[in-house]
Write a structure and sequence with these properties.
Distance between the termini: 29 Å
Radius of gyration: 24 Å
Order of helices and strands: EHEHHEHEHEEHEHHHEEEHEHEHHHH
Strand order of the largest sheet: 5-4-3-2-1-7-6
Strand content: 5-15%
CATH superfamily of the largest domain: Glycoside hydrolase/deacetylase
CATH class of the largest domain: Alpha Beta
CATH architecture of the largest domain: Alpha-Beta Barrel
Shape: globular
Number of strands: 12
Number of domains: 3
Helix content: 40-55%
Length: 414
């Protein structure tokens, strides 16, 4: 008996061919999936599950566990599991350590997540081991999707060398630690770009405020995407409302939704307040949360009943007086953050800024699985920061190497 396993997927070119071949011969296999790839290709992962195949957790970004701390290993497994479960709708059963490097911390983390550890005895390729006799005697066969070498033309052809994705920080003069801290300060606190410039200068980092602006616009969406798989599951009771901000002298409407725990589900900036904007916002929110709410509380705007009847016919639409106070009070956090700025000049910049504020608020309120909460040097718990920091440059550099920068640097390996 031979058990087939495929690692590192799903791959948009190879995975459909593998599924077609397995279906042709009536064979079931185990796909050990990277969480990063699962979020990028969730449709392929659902196709794997629909084909009757099993899923395994292959960590978030395929890091060498032998060189990772216990916290980092647990984070890799936990984020990988959450991403797979969110993308496929099923919990992965197995855990396969990248490159077979099984450590004591990895074994403990797998046991805590109720994963069965799955290794292999036969593989293909230049580093392959095993013989046809060994396979016939029974083995666990292992293939890497995207780098497997094949001989028969009837089988899946090789893709050739797969380029390693370049770090998002490549080409920037300043180290990732400085960039991440500057972006976080601007999004979290009521600071202008010149305020961030002054704070960095006090710590020995000479950078122009325009550079800080470019960092915020460039890295805010990337940081939000890096933490998305580790967000807590969104609740099924939503409070939805719209507020307004002025962009280049014109009013723009900001649709926002929170759940019962105060987690910001999604935000959407629109030049109009109409049924089309509300419809698009709900589509985005449902797609991002991957949850269909059973209860939606809004104000008495006339566009909501028709939109909810079309998208969420089974949801209970509540419009009673004062019922929406929860989200209306939450608007105040956004308005307080925008007040110190000298105004928003472009729609795109406004969307990045408002989405970044929502992302930071979720991290600050503890709606992620990452262990970002730290203590200040004096031992007092920090209620307003997600990463440690200090006034001297050495502590600043050390503190900013937190999970945000780590997520940006840890790109998937091939």
């Amino acid at each position: 008996m031979v058990a087939l396993t495929f690692d590192d997927g799903p791959d948009p070119e190879l995975t459909p061919r593998i599924l077609a071949m397995l279906d042709r011969y009536g064979v079931r296999a185990t796909f050990n999936v990277m969480g990063y790839n699962a979020m990028r290709h969730s449709d392929l992962l659902r196709a794997v599950v629909a084909g009757g195949h099993e899923l395994g957790n292959h960590t978030w970004t395929h890091q060498d566990l032998a060189f990772q701390s216990t916290t980092s290993i647990r984070r890799q497994l936990d984020c990988g599991r959450a991403a797979i479960q969110r993308a496929a709708g099923v919990r992965p059963r197995f855990f396969r350590p990248p490159r077979g490097e099984l450590t004591g911390a990895a074994i403990r983390a797998a046991a805590e997540l109720d994963h069965d550890i799955l290794l292999w005895s036969v593989t293909r390729g230049p580093a392959g081991v095993g013989t046809p006799r060994a396979v016939a005697a029974g083995a666990v066969a292992f293939a890497v999707i995207g780098s497997e070498q094949r001989d028969s033309p009837d089988e899946i052809p090789p893709l050739g060398p797969v380029p390693v994705p370049q770090s998002a920080f490549a080409g920037f003069r300043f180290p990732p630690a400085v960039i991440v801290v500057a972006v976080r300060w601007y999004l979290r606190f009521g600071l202008s770009y010149r305020d961030v410039e002054e704070l960095l200068a006090e710590r020995g980092v000479e950078v122009d405020h325009v550079t800080v602006y470019r960092w915020v616009q460039r890295f805010t969406p990337l940081l939000a995407d890096a933490t998305r798989p580790c967000r807590h599951a969104v609740g099924d009771r939503w409070w939805v409302d719209e507020t307004y901000v002025k962009v280049a002298g014109r009013w723009r409407y900001v649709y926002r939704a929170i759940d019962h725990a105060g987690q910001i589900i999604d935000v959407f900036v629109s030049p109009r307040r109409d049924a089309k904007a509300a419809h698009r916002f709900f589509e985005r929110a449902i797609g991002a949360a991957k949850v269909a709410p059973v209860e939606v509380t809004t104000d008495k705007a006339p566009v909501y009943p028709a939109v909810l009847e079309e998208l969420l016919p089974a949801a209970w639409h509540r419009t009673e007086q004062y019922g929406n106070n929860r989200v209306e009070c939450d608007h105040g956090r956004l308005k307080a953050r925008l007040r110190p700025t000298r105004g928003l000049k472009q729609d795109r910049n406004a969307a990045v800024m408002i989405a970044g504020h929502a992302f930071v608020q979720n991290v600050r309120r503890g709606h992620t699985n990452w262990p970002l909460r730290n203590r200040r040097p004096g031992g007092w718990p920090s209620r307003s920061t997600s990463c440690p920091w200090s006034s001297d440059a050495a502590r600043t550099t050390q503190a900013s190497a937190c999970a945000w920068a780590g997520a940006m640097r840890q790109r998937p390996s091939t």
